[in-house]
Amino acid sequence: MTIQSLNHVTIRSRDLETTRNFYVDIVGLRDGERPPFGFPGYWLYAGAAPVLHLIGSRGSTATGSGAVDHVAFAYEAEDYDRVVAALAAHGFDCARQTVPTLGSRQLFIEDPDGVCVELNFPAA
């Protein structure tokens, strides 16, 4: 058996609209087709793939089925300044890091539900 790719990550959100706005306005994902499930949510796309599924809390206080340390996204080098500006404009703090020996740049932030998000950019 060969794994072809990661299909998607699902986040159960306490505030669905705020979380959706974070991933669309700052991370750069886009809204896309979603089947008509009987509960609120969004499928957010990177290119043609629905990589992030957001679902409303459905009145539950459950936070999911296990611990997720972080979710990572990759960008082109020229996106770095745009993303940094979007974070600042929306009042998000981030930790910055340069990967030793590789020179690639990383930003670490928390989404509105406390999920750590890693944003990766090639070396400047």
Short description:
By secondary structure, the chain is of the alpha/beta class.
Q: Can you offer a commentary on this structure?
A:
- The chain is 18% helix and 34% strand.
- The chain is α/β, with parallel strands linked by helices and 124 residues long.
- It has a 4-stranded mixed β-sheet with strand order 1-4-3-2, with helices on one face.
- A hairpin with a 6-residue loop joins β6 (95-98) and β7 (105-110).
- It is globular and about 45 Å long.
Question: Which key terms come to mind for this protein?
Answer:
2,3-Dihydroxybiphenyl 1,2-Dioxygenase, domain 1; 4-stranded mixed beta sheet; 124 residues; alpha/beta; 8 strands
CA-CA gap between termini = 38 Å
Number of domains: 1
Quick one: how many beta strands? 8
Report strand order across the widest sheet. Answer: 1-4-3-2
Q: By helix and strand content, what is the structural category?
A: alpha/beta
Shape: globular
Helix content: 10-25%
In terms of topology, how is this protein built?
Layout: E1 9-13, H1 16-27, E2 30-32, E3 41-46, E4 49-56, E5 71-74, H2 80-89, E6 95-98, E7 105-110, E8 116-121
Parallel strand pairs: 1-4, 5-8
Antiparallel strand pairs: 2-3, 3-4, 6-7, 7-8
